[in-house]
């Protein structure tokens, strides 16, 4: 911005408007800010920092920051003060909005300071990481990535999706040709693949863009302790690998880019450790939830070295008998284990939830439920967790302190999952959707599927497997 001849600064008018599904332009705050010269490098850095901080809460909303030139004014001392006041007001207003994600549009009349701040790819990277926990690109720039994520998030609220059905291929394992008994037990999603783990221990990998079957992985054979000891109990993706476990404690690692390449990373010992009822991981950690042997509920491994770094915990001790029963009957849900964006682990059973740090294994929070929960509906994602109790009341909590965010009625919920902004719960009539900020019921999927055996969601897809040997995939990605 150029100063005028008499040294007066140009005065700009800021308007903040909420991002509502109705595209309302109701104004929640107006403020004035003075830009006093065009050498504002320090102020630009402050603006980037403050703008980053003002969306520290991923539930916050600002849709438009519009800057319009109004008049000339001679004042060179108020820039920082007005900027701080403005961003403070923005931060306060964001806690009263109803939408889920932040969108900032810069009009052509934006002053040079804000224009330069908006062109910082580091700024958009920070926003994308804070809101959607996104750490790598699939678009040319972080600004493009941010826009795509924001539009996709809006699609979740407006029920704008594309539905496809994936029919998994017949069992090609010579040791088990009974395809009628084959049941999908776990699902996992990445940017380009979906993996399905089955009751016979096999895992099928599909390419998401084409929906084509890529490969089938079969676990190494050994003696079994029950008809379902090989059943897949957990599955997840890392950058280049697919990792999955079975109820008998075996852990296998497969290469995504090499069809059929599989190795056993750990040989399970059911007698010593119990039944591996759930398993998940990240690029840093693997964690298994076991039931059947006292004081051995959690097994934490370093994902790089694959070495065991911790064994302990009593979370599943009351459910030892049910854990053993999984080896002959897969209908029970004993426990759930999840890893959040801050390297915290969340463990659920029917009567208890526990949160602890994976780095030092310190317990950060725990609670015993007054009413038992349906473990199949329990899930955690980023900074939120959800469960549904025996009376059909769904409860959404902050992960770190277990502080309640909202609650809503979800009677008849059988299985459930969440992503960064929405909850998906299967009932006898289909999959219903709620938003996580206030527990507002939004809609039911148009496809009224039943007999769901596994569910998962991320920031683009929702997937569910059914008893008729199909996987339903709902794609909310912006187009």
Give an overview in words.
- By secondary structure, the protein is α+β, with helices and mostly antiparallel strands.
- It has 2 domains: 9-158, no CATH class; 163-475, YVTN repeat-like/Quinoprotein amine dehydrogenase (Methylamine Dehydrogenase, Chain H).
- Helices cover 16% and strands 39% of the residues.
- The chain has 7 helices and 31 strands.
- The chain has a 4-stranded antiparallel beta sheet, with no helix packed on it. The chain has a 4-stranded antiparallel beta sheet with strand order 5-6-7-8, with no helix packed on it. Strands 9-10-11-12 form a 4-stranded antiparallel beta sheet, with no helix packed on it.
- The chain is globular, with a radius of gyration of 25 Å.
- The two termini are 36 Å apart.
- Mean pLDDT is 79; it is low at 1-44, 54-76, 93-109 and 176-180.
Which helices and strands, and how do they pair?
Layout: E1 9-17, E2 29-35, H1 41-54, E3 64-73, H2 79-94, H3 112-118, H4 121-132, H5 142-158, E4 162-167, E5 184-189, E6 193-198, E7 203-207, E8 212-217, E9 232-237, E10 241-246, E11 251-255, E12 262-266, H6 270-273, E13 275-281, E14 285-291, E15 298-302, E16 308-312, H7 320-325, E17 336-339, E18 344-348, E19 352-357, E20 363-368, E21 373-381, E22 384-389, E23 393-398, E24 404-409, E25 415-418, E26 422-427, E27 430-435, E28 441-444, E29 452-457, E30 461-466, E31 470-475
Antiparallel strand pairs: 1-2, 1-3, 4-31, 5-6, 6-7, 7-8, 9-10, 10-11, 11-12, 13-14, 14-15, 15-16, 17-18, 18-19, 19-20, 21-22, 22-23, 23-24, 25-26, 26-27, 27-28, 29-30, 30-31
Helix pairs in contact: 1-2, 1-3, 4-5
């Amino acid at each position: 911005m150029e100063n005028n001849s008499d040294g007066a600064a140009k005065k700009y008018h800021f308007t903040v408007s909420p991002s509502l599904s109705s595209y309302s332009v109701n104004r929640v705050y107006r403020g004035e800010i003075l830009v006093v010269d065009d050498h504002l490098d320090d102020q630009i850095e402050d603006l980037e920092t403050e703008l980053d901080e003002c969306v520290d809460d991923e539930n916050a909303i600002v849709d438009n920051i519009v800057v319009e030139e109004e008049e000339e004014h001679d004042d060179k001392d108020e820039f920082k003060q007005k900027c701080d006041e403005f961003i403070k007001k923005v931060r306060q207003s964001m806690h009263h909005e109803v939408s889920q994600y932040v969108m900032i549009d810069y009009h052509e009349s934006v002053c040079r300071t804000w224009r330069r701040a908006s062109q910082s790819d580091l700024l958009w990277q920070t926003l994308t990481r804070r809101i959607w926990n996104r750490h790598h690109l699939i678009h040319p720039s972080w600004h493009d990535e941010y826009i795509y994520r924001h539009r996709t998030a809006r699609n979740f609220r407006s029920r704008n999706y594309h539905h496809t059905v994936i029919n998994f291929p017949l069992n090609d394992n010579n040791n088990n040709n009974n395809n009628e008994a084959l049941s999908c037990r776990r699902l996992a999603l990445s940017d380009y693949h979906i993996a399905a783990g089955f009751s016979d221990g096999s895992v099928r990998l599909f390419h998401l863009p084409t929906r084509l079957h890529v490969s089938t992985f079969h676990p190494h054979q050994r003696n079994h302790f029950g008809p379902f000891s090989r059943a897949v109990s957990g599955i997840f993706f890392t950058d280049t690998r697919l990792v999955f476990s079975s109820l008998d404690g075996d852990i296998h690692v497969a290469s995504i880019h090499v069809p059929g390449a599989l190795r056993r990373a750990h040989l399970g010992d059911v007698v010593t450790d119990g039944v591996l009822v759930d398993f998940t991981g990240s690029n840093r950690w693997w964690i298994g939830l076991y039931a059947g042997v006292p004081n051995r509920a959690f097994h934490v491994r370093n994902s790089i070295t694959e070495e065991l770094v911790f064994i302990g915990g009593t979370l599943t001790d009351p459910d030892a008998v049910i854990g053993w029963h999984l080896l002959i009957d897969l209908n029970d849900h004993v426990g759930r284990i999840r890893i959040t964006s801050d390297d915290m682990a969340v463990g659920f059973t029917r009567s208890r939830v526990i949160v602890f740090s994976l780095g030092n294994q310190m317990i950060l929070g725990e609670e015993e439920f007054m009413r038992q929960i349906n473990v199949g509906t329990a899930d955690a994602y980023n900074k939120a967790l959800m469960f549904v109790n025996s009376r059909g009341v769904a409860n959404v909590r902050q992960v770190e302190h277990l502080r309640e965010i909202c609650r809503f009625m979800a009677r008849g919920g059988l299985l459930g999952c969440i992503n960064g902004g929405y909850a998906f719960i299967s009932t006898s009539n289909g999959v219903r959707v709620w938003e996580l900020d206030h527990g507002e019921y939004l809609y039911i999927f148009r496809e009224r599927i039943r007999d769901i055996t596994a569910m998962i969601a991320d920031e683009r897809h929702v997937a569910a497997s059914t008893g008729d040997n199909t996987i339903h995939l709902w794609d909310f990605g912006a187009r």
